[in-house]
Design a protein that fits this description.
The longest helix has 14 residues. This protein is 39% helix and 15% strand. It is globular, with a radius of gyration of 17 Å. The protein is α/β, with parallel strands linked by helices. Helix 2 links the parallel strand 2 and strand 3. A five-stranded mixed sheet has the order 3-2-1-4-6, sandwiched between helices.
């Protein structure tokens, strides 16, 4: 039987916002603690961090969640880290989550898993056909498999594909079975909203939005949050600058 797990990618050494995983974000909790708690209540969850000594703090943060596993691997070869994490814990199907998305949505993960049919890559896409991993909304995951990641590792050793785990897959649909699903209609048009966190400005802005809406996960809650952001020109302008400066 295929084993499925969420693998959360996180490290302390962000160049744009060092230690963003450990800075208090909401009610004394860090972003990493918030999403690990949310995800592990629903799914088998593994933190994939690095062997760097600075990442011991992430291990310490997550250790209090008894149901969460931890794997430490290569700092720069994230593809290898994912493969070894999956091998160590006998995971076949990988739900990949980046730890800089405090609004990662469990309902969206549930929905995507129901759509997943063993493809090499499965995710949502924006109206222009772009995978949501290349956007800034920060609500979504990706689904792949250990066999697919091993195939990537055999086919290319380029650094960008070692760092960006799934990029080689969805940019080569002639090699891989890529399935991108349309987003729900109420979310589809909000590509100008940025809820992922890379910079201090991202952190400060999203922190205020999180204070107002918390981690509420229903479609209705997401709609209300998006409507609030869309009606606030100051927030939108700030997000537009960060999107331009941090394009994917």
């Amino acid at each position: 039987m295929s084993e499925t797990a969420i693998i959360v990618q996180a490290r302390s050494g962000s160049t744009r916002l060092p230690n963003k995983m450990t800075i208090p974000f909401f009610e004394g909790q860090s972003i990493l603690e918030i999403i690990i708690k949310r995800l592990s209540e629903r799914y088998r969850t593994i933190l994939a961090t690095t062997n760097h000594e600075d990442d011991q703090v992430l291990v310490n943060l997550v250790a209090k969640f008894n149901s969460v596993s931890i794997y430490r691997g290569s700092e720069h070869n994230v593809l290898e880290r994912f493969i070894k994490t999956a091998e160590f814990y006998n995971i076949d199907t990988i739900i990949r989550v980046c730890a800089d998305n405090p609004f990662i949505n469990v309902q969206m993960i549930d929905s995507l898993l129901k759509l997943y049919n063993g493809e090499d890559y499965c995710s949502y896409m924006y109206s222009n056909g772009k995978p949501t991993i290349l956007g800034h909304l920060g609500l979504f995951c990706e689904i792949t498999s250990i066999n697919t990641l091993k195939k990537v590792n055999r086919l290319t050793k380029e650094m960008k594909y070692q760092e960006h785990v799934t990029n080689f897959i969805y940019t080569n649909p002639n090699i891989f079975n890529v399935k991108l699903h349309r987003l729900p209609a109420d979310i589809r048009s909000y590509e100008g909203i940025r809820l992922t966190i890379d910079t201090q400005r991202d952190f400060d802005l999203v922190k205020e939005i999180y204070k107002k809406f918390g981690g509420r996960q229903t479609t209705e809650d997401v709609e209300k949050m998006i409507q609030y952001i869309s009606s606030n020109n100051v927030i939108l302008q700030t997000m537009a600058v960060e999107i331009k400066n941090n394009s994917k």
